[in-house]
Write a structure and sequence with these properties.
Layout lengths: L8 H6 L1 H14 L17 E6 L14 H7 L10 E6 L4 E5 L5 H8 L15 H4 L3 E2 L5 H4 L15 E5 L1 H9 L3 H6 L3 E5 L6 E2 L5 E7 L8 E7 L4 E5 L12 H6 L3 E5 L21 H8 L7 E5 L13 H8 L3 E2 L5 E3 L1
Parallel strand pairs: 3-4, 4-5, 5-6, 10-11, 11-12, 12-13
Antiparallel strand pairs: 1-2, 1-14, 2-3, 7-8, 8-9, 9-10
The chain binds zinc ion (ZN) (2 copies).
The site of one zinc ion has 8 residues, from helix 6.
Length: 337
Amino acid sequence: MMSKLQKRPQTIASSSLLTRRHFLSGALAVPIAPLRSWLRPTQTSPYVVVLGTAQDAGVPQVNCFNENCNAVRRGVRPLPRVSSIGLVDPLAGKRFIFDATPDFASQVGELLTHPAGTALPRASVPLQEYLHGIFLTHGHMGHYTGLIHIGREGAAASRLPLYVSPSMASYLNDNEPWAFLVQNHHVQLTVLQPEIRLVLTDSLAVTPFTVVHRQEFTDTLGFLIHGPERTLMFVPDADVWEGWRIPFQQLLDRSDAALLDGSFFSYEELGHRRQGDVPHPPVIASIDLLSGRRGDPEIWFTHLNNTNPLWDPNSHENVVVSNAGFGVARRGQIFKL
Ligand SMILES: [Zn+2]
Ligand SMILES: [Zn+2]
């Protein structure tokens, strides 16, 4: 059967009602083993911690008054943070963050409490002494604008390692206020070459790869994060799952778990926005494409748009995802590596 993801996004939208009904009935009819739980790490194992799961503009989005946004405004649901993960190596005493979101200050503070039991400092500490590197996926607002906290008005970091693609490096070097951060050595740019593995510590390495995603300002990287026992794949933003320089499925084959773009449950939720403006693989289509993998790797959806019904933990769509053997990433979730 031809995958829905092999069609153009416009095709997905026009058939979304049919697609969804077909998927719901199919998914519920097939028994699939539940996701294995990832144990909390020991104090010595490196791990990834989820620091946020929202699309760039967060929830509530400034012009959004749907139930997802208003439930957060009313305090019925906690304030989500924008999609990001932290990487911790307790033995090496190192912490890294993937993407510098508009919630960067809060997320770095949360990362500083890792590994579990770490007491917060009682006075100012140079940022580069407890955050040892930032990896950026790309130049859309939710993924790099948190760098604003690193300059003179904020942390005034000194040579904080910043790992980026060649095009992201050019973008930062060519545009203020980011160029100021580079020229004044608040950050130390390290240009990543796709598919070249970068060793971070004795236990951790990262392999960047190129993702198909709209390139208004920069290209987009995804990451394989390798620990001593497991590899986690991180792709918060993608237009499609096909046409990648390294095929998406090959990257999944190299992973034990994957945090993937789950921006939209289906294109029905887009309303007045044209899906061609913001193409993402809908969760229902991703599940359809990947259900044959039977949980290998474990797949968790992140980067949820403010319209996504998966924000409601009691929604039918959450049941659909879990019954199909997939998960919705939650802030604080741990992936032992
Ligand atoms: Zn994004
Ligand atoms: Zn993006």
